[in-house]
Structure formats: structure tokens, C-alpha cells
Amino acid sequence: MSPEYEWLLSPWALGVLGLCVGSFLNVVIHRLPLMMQREWLGDAAMQLSDADELAKAVQMPKGEADKLVSAAKGLAQRIEKLPALTIARPRSRCPHCGHQLGAGENIPVIGWLKLGGKCASCKAPISKRYPIVEALTGIAFAALSWRFGAQPTTLLWCGFVATLIALAGIDWDTTLLPDSLNQPLLWAGLIAALMGWSGVPLAASVTGALAGYLSLWTVYWVFKLATGKEGMGYGDFKLLAALGAWLGWQMVLPVVLLASVIGAVVGIAMKLSASLREGRYVPFGPFLAGGGLFVLFAGPQMVLGWLGW
């Protein structure tokens, strides 16, 4: 990159970019699960549109099937009448009173501080997570510039980190790891290795993706066969596969070990403080993402040295 443009990828410049990206990630974390739920409900309503097929499939009386179909049609109509919901629409607003945020209120971190953590209209509290995500993303982007230098490939790692933050936030809230984020992250890691952008050999990237997916897939089935319960979701397999594609097969085990230890500590702390959610579970995705970020910033040589490899 030309020296006169290197400042664009300096820690300060990428830190500011990270603050703005963090603001966008807050929108993704909040809206993407809602968009998915609307889509699923719409698909379910479509599947329940034929009373004869429904009665045949679940062996219920035709009268009961007709009632379900009627209810499904009502649901579909209500979904169609809802205002458009995308990542870009509607504009950011208070979930309590609908107040639309102005430009000054949308400034990352500063906007929240300026408002005192409350809506300017109804004074309802605004979650501290919004400025935390923005600040975390800004700090991470700046750290990536220090870690990899002012070069274009640093932006790839910025995209990697931003996606992990979004996935961690969504999984913590909903226990969902959307394919719309997981799968592009996996393919981006493989393509980055193929093009020589990530510094991970293609063979190590492919092997890492396989090792990441199959390791948790095996644990899932062993646990399910032994207990009859599901210990994790398929999204965890895909996330670890993506981490393996970006970091290489040697980093898969360190990521899992870090995620397991941190997850266990957090889970015990939440249990002792009676803050575990209904069902008494802690999603694994945020800790996988955290393990991946730790390995990324520590570097493979340091991580392997700690393990004595």
C-alpha cells in the first residue's frame, strides 16, 4: 500500500471505523433474529395452507385441520401487514416509545453518553450493551492494525472479528447462530487461504474447517446417544469450522479448550448468582468466538508454546 495512504489503515483510523461498524453490529444483533423469526413463521403458515395434506400428515380430523389452516392464514395475513423489517429499515428508534434517533444520538458511544443512557423522549433506559459493542469493535479494529500492520489484508481480519462479535451477541440473546453469518464466514476463510491473504496454507484451512465441524459434531452425537439430550446446536459446529478455516487446524483445539474453560467459569458464576436463563443453559457460541479472538491476537506461536507443542 502506498505510504501516503497507510494512515487509512492506522490504529486510529481503524479504531474510528470499528466504532461505526460496532454501531451497525448492534442493529444486526437486534434485528437479524427478528427477521429470521418472521421468515420462519411465514414459512410455517405456508406449510399449513392445505387442510387435506395437514389432516393426512398428522392424522387429525378434517375439522381440526380446517381450524389450524384458518389460524395459519390469519397469521400469514398479520405478518404481511407488519411494517418492513430489514437491517436498513426502519431507521433506529426507541423500542419503548418509537422515538426516531437523530444523527447526534446515533454517534457511537458518544451518543449514548450524551443521552445519559436514556431515551431523549421517554427517558427509558438504553442498554449498556450498545456502547460496549461499539467500543469493543473499535478497540479490536485498532488492535488488528497493530497486530497485522497497515495493509489491505488487515481489513479481512476486521471483517472476521466483526462477524464473530455479531454471532456472539445473537447467540447470547437467542441461542441462534445464523447460517447467513456462519456460512459466509466459513467460505471467506477458505477463499482467504486460497488467495494467500490470511497467511494460513490452504491445506491447513480446509483441514481446520473439517476438524472444527467434525469434532463438535462427534461430541454432539456421543452426548445425545448417551443422555438422549442435545448438548449444543449445529450452529456451533459451523462456527468452529469457520474458525478452523481462518486460523488453521492447529488452533481448533486451543479454541475449544479456551471456550470450554471460560464457558464453565461463566456458567458456574451465573448459577451461583441465580442468573441462568430458563432451561439452565449457557450458549457456547460466544465462548467459541472469544476463544477464536484470543488465539487471533495472541498468535499461533504463542498459543502453541503455552500448550508445549
Strand content: under 5%
Rg for CA atoms: 22 Å
For the largest beta-sheet, the strand count, sense and barrel status come to: none
What is the N-to-C succession of helices and strands? HHHHHHHHHHHH
What would you note in describing this structure?
By secondary structure, this protein is mainly alpha-helical. 69% of the residues lie in helices and 0% in strands. It starts with 10 loop residues before the first helix and ends with a helix. It is globular and about 70 Å long. α10 crosses α11.
In short:
The chain contains 12 helices and no strands. With 309 residues, it is mainly alpha-helical.
Annotation keywords:
globular; 69% helix; 12 helices
Write the layout of secondary structure elements.
Elements: H1 11-47, H2 51-58, H3 62-81, H4 110-115, H5 129-148, H6 153-174, H7 179-194, H8 202-227, H9 234-247, H10 252-272, H11 285-298, H12 300-307
